[in-house]
Design goal:
5 helices; four-stranded antiparallel sheet; 21% strand; alpha+beta
Length: 269
């Protein structure tokens, strides 16, 4: 599943091609995604895309009258292609631009989303979210306050979008390893020093992934069609049973909250 770095890399990739462009047509080949694509999405036709922003894992194509909200789901991707490019299986949505290019959405599993919201209003999917992990609002004092007294495992706490958005499974594993924290530890029992370090490591890991182009996942490609490269840097995710890169002990692989969780039982405590 594309995580925050992959979504941010996609935003960076499509922005130079779509910002300032008039949308001449929206072509919907299959409206049956996670939620049915609303007819109101056609409102973007004739509008100029002023900017492309991101909130959590949602991309917002903003115009003067409103914005299209795009989620890549489990297998979606956005690509910039020349107008008239051959349509392939699972190409569900085209945003045709006056430049002669198209922004094409492909999603084999159809668990993504295309939604519409009028300007000045907030869509329900964007409400009640925590701060962005790379923002100043997400800091050590904030996480200490949110973790206080919590029995919830620290890994599940930092993956909760009400606490902080966009810290998905891969990067939660990596950040906890970097901070030497057992992902199973109740959040309220993690020391203040460790929580402050964890915030720093989350920011470092996510920013590094963005810089290197996102993680190469089976179903993800960047807007230019090239895969990301951060998978080469993963320390623990997907490496259960292999030697810990820090101490050499075999990495433990368990399910926590139904998600694959890999950690070092010796280094992380």
């Amino acid at each position: 599943m594309p995580e925050l770095p992959e979504v941010e890399v996609t935003r960076m990739g499509i922005t130079p091609h779509v910002v300032g462009q008039v949308v001449t047509e929206i072509i919907i080949r299959n409206s049956r995604l996670r939620w049915p694509i609303p007819d109101a999405i056609k409102n973007i036709e004739g509008q100029v895309i002023r900017k492309v922003t991101r909130r959590a894992k949602y991309l917002l194509l903003e115009t003067d009258i409103g914005y299209a909200i795009v989620h890549l789901g489990m297998s979606g991707n956005l690509r910039i292609l020349p107008a008239g490019s051959a349509v392939e299986k699972h190409d569900h949505v085209d945003v045709v631009l006056a430049s002669g290019e198209i922004l094409r959405y492909n999603d084999p599993r159809r668990f993504g989303a295309w939604l519409w919201q009028l300007a000045g209003e907030s869509h329900a999917v964007l409400e009640k979210m925590g701060p962005e992990p790379l923002s100043d609002d997400f800091n050590g004092d904030y996480l200490v306050a949110k973790a206080k007294g919590k029995r919830k495992a620290i890994k599940l706490l930092i993956m909760d979008n009400h606490i902080v958005v966009g810290v998905g499974n891969i990067y939660a594993n990596e950040s906890l390893f970097a901070a030497r924290i057992d992902p199973q530890c109740p959040a309220g029992k993690v020391s203040i020093v460790q929580l402050q370090l964890l915030v720093s490591e989350i920011k470092i890991v996510l920013q590094k992934a963005i810089t290197q182009g996102g993680t190469t996942l089976k179903d993800f490609k960047n807007a230019d069609g090239k895969p990301g490269y951060f998978a080469q840097e993963l320390q623990v995710y997907g490496k259960g049973g292999q030697p810990c890169p820090r101490c050499g002990e075999p990495l433990t692989d368990i399910k926590l909250g139904q998600r694959a969780t890999v950690f070092c039982g010796k280094c992380q405590c």
